[in-house]
Amino acid sequence: MTGQAFTPRMVAHMESRIKEITNGLLDQVQAVGEMDVIRNLAYPLPVTVIAELLEVPAERREEFKQWSDAFVSGDEEATEEPRQAVMQATDSMSAYFTQIFEERRAHPQNDLVSALLLAEVDGERLSNEELLGFCVLLLVAGNETTTNLIGNAILCLDEHPEAVERLRANRDLVPSALEEALRYYSPLKLTIRGTTTETTIGDQRIEAGKLLFAWIASANRDEAQFPNANQFMIEREPNRHLGFGRGIHFCLGAPLARLEAKIALSAMLDRLPGSWHVSDAPLSLISSMSVLGVKTLPLTWEK
User: Is the pLDDT assigned to residue 8 strictly greater than 70?
Assistant: First the structure.
């Protein structure tokens, strides 16, 4: 299975490197007393981690990010510009990773791409198309989702400043606070599924061959599953949210996203003292039907 190439054990080995990247980013803003959480931390942290996993050289990481943005923004509406951006990103990624696949087949290394080349599904190696699709998945899910998880978590804490003080007093609450942020402001608003056979959900009959829009953000506010669903509660238990999907569709990169967000939030609590304040200026949402996040997130703190 492809999951063998992206396991929690592999992710755990990256913890020290993620901390190094995080602290390097905070070094640039700590003494200033203000930052843009997205530009200064939530964007560069996951894009650097994923780029290093995929062996993307530093000089191409801005292009790497542009590919990811194109895939996310292209689903909002069927206009010509988003379609062209997605097609261009697809062509650029295909050319780049096809070359990488050829290089790794000839000279395997101890990296994720080499592991993917050896991965098997039902006893068969992945085709180039499947490998490319997997890299796109890692690029978008491992980059955009983590960026928005971190940003949305800070938005939650800005709306509930008492939670920041509780987290400062007890860092063991950081993981559950992030799970609640995943539920409360889900980075992925919806996902699309197709029916292979006729089925019934509730009292709704759905024919085979239909597309379904599964609204994750709505499910995560379902009062039948989450008492006081419209309240942000950092110790909510149980918290069976759908922020990372469920069952066979559970997000492969969830361990990495959780680790990055935990390290990022813990480092911010360690290094950015006092009260945090998000700018009162209106925040611009990402232009996407499926993704929830803000483009910028100005934050100040007491030095």
Answer: no
- Please answer whether residues 41 and 26 qualify as being in contact, where contact means their C-beta atoms are separated by less than 8 angstroms: yes
Q: Which residue has the higher pLDDT, 4 or 67?
A: 67
- Number of domain units in the chain: 1
Please name the residues in contact with 241: beta carbons below 8 A apart, sequence gap of 6 or more: 179, 182, 183, 186, 220, 226
% of residues, the chain, pLDDT over 90 = 56
The crossing angle, in degrees rounded to 10, of helices 161-169 and 174-184 is 150
What CATH number has the domain bearing residue 140? 1.10.630.10
Q: For residue 71, which amino acid is it?
A: F
Please list, in sequence order, all residues whose beta carbon lies within 8 angstroms of the beta carbon of residue 89, skipping any fewer than 6 positions away. Answer: 66, 67, 70, 71
The answer to whether residue 237 sits within a structural domain is no
pTM of this structure: 0.86
Please give the residue range of the domain that contains residue 46: 2-186+251-301
255 close to 42: Cβ distance less than 8 angstroms: no
Give CA–CA dist 115/104, Å, rounded: 10
Decide if 284 is inside a domain: yes
Q: Which amino acid is at 6?
A: F
Residue 37: name the closest of 155, 151, 157 by CA: 151
